[in-house]
Amino acid sequence: MSETDTRELLVPETLPARPEGALKERLAKVRYVFTDLDATMLAPGSTVMADSAGNPSAALPDVLVDLKRAGVSVIPVSGRNRSMLQEDCRILGLNTYIGEMGGLIMTDLKADRWSYFTADMAYDPSCGLTPHQVIEQTGICHRILERWQGLIEYHNDMGPGFKHREVTVTYRGDVDDDKFRAMLDESGLALELADNGYVNRISKPTTLAIPDDGTRCRSLHIIPKGLTKGRGVRRCMHIMGIKPEEGLAIGDAPSDFLMGRKVDNFILMKNGLPHPGVQKALDHEMRHHPGRTLISSDITIDGWVAAMRSILAAKE
């Protein structure tokens, strides 16, 4: 059998509605769900009371109630900032989140227990600046905008704006990743680029001269070197005493595989499959950890709800 034929066999199983056998035993241990939000837990447009097609639906609130009753905690892991995640969690009744690609870890929202995490980038909290402000002071953010006018802009976070960020800098658009990284190397700080996947649509106002349907628009983050959703999840797990077998990660982008590697279970959203970076990450997972990754049975919010129903079924 050729290498190509072997590669074609490395396809993850679709998560069944009612897991059985070893998979049932594995999913029955899950107590914490580390989840991406956009194009994963939320419907297109980042809404809750709708299905993947935009039709009115209360499926997400219903399953969140059932998860809480079953003792399963949902922990958003997102590129979003504090102001957005605090409201998301307050409204949905969640108490823990990981924001800014792992850079802001809120372990107890009710008690306001949180910390910054800058991985390999040197940061002294006594400087009086947030990590975001330290990055901005280098001038790199403005230079990037000047170089790619019309192709990249600050991601406006659905309104609150990039200035509300504390650790990372977020853009949306489409540029050459290698040239972007070369510019970051000139900043004098330990920084890197993180691809957080395609956006569903480009919310207004915008300066981008690209289609507004998200087909050529990615969420691009300047982050401290070494900062990933995975390291953020690992740090959160350490603080909260969460064991790998108690965790499940779910997402649609290449960055989500990194959090999946810190727990024993990872669900890749079906809608993430067309992303070239996802295909590369999936190939790596299937070769080195073939039993850990499953594919959701549907896309975005419908697939997320179905996945949570599978976990609940495994606990019966």
Give a verbal description of the structure.
The protein has helices at 3-9, 21-28, 37-41, 59-69, 82-92, 131-136, 140-147, 177-185, 229-240, 254-260, 276-288, 300-314, and strands at 13-14, 32-35, 73-76, 97-99, 104-108, 113-116, 152-154, 169-173, 191-198, 218-224, 247-251, 265-268, 293-295. It has two domains: 17-117 and 228-314, 3-Layer(aba) Sandwich (Rossmann fold), CATH 3.40.50.1000; 125-224, no CATH class. Helix 2 (21-28) crosses helix 12 (300-314), helix 4 packs parallel to helix 12 and helix 9 runs parallel beside helix 10. Strand 4 and strand 5 (104-108) form a beta hairpin. The protein is globular, with a radius of gyration of 19 Å. It is built from twelve helices and 13 strands. With 316 residues, it is an alpha/beta fold. The strands form three sheets. It has a six-stranded parallel beta sheet, sandwiched between helices. A four-stranded antiparallel beta sheet has the order 7-8-10-9. It has a three-stranded antiparallel beta sheet with strand order 4-5-6, with helices on both faces. The chain starts with a helix and ends with a helix.
